[in-house]
Amino acid sequence: MINLKGVENFNSFFYFYRMDKILYILIVVGLFSCKSNSIAQEKEAEKTKPKVEKPKFSDLQNNTIDPNTVHLIAVIQGVTKNISICEKSFKTATTVKVKQIINSGSGITNMISPGQEITFGFMNSPANDFDTLKQRMPKDKEVSFKIRENLCPDMSKTVYEVIGFKTKD
User: Fold this and answer.
1) DSSP E strands: which ranges in the chain?
2) What residue numbers bound the domain in which 26 lies?
3) What is the pTM of this model?
4) Total domains, the chain
């Protein structure tokens, strides 16, 4: 008599072994099909994605300002000669009413606000010719200033020095 019990075990083993192989093949095929779809979707997204331009050096240069510096527009209230602001003497100074702050650098201790009335001291050449400066800056004229903030020796107040200015014609 032939023992068929061993043949049955062999056939069932072979059958399960073959099923496992088929199952593995199906899983691998499924993974590859999912991956190829995601790659296609990524490529499609790259095509529709807008390109962002990097800022150019000239763009950055216009927006940056030195520390302790403020660029503003103000209305002239008056121009004075030989004045001392915060124990520092200036040959020429101007009192202004701030109209608009355009830009400010880092490190400003006492920030200027629109509507504020302040006296600025002139550091360089326009200060030497008081009469010419007074003609260029009549009362109620709108002027664009670039000023630098410095602290007074006692550190309680601030003095503003004009680095440059441009009159609005």
Assistant:
1) 69-85, 88-104, 117-122, 142-151, 158-167
2) 1-52
3) 0.59
4) 2
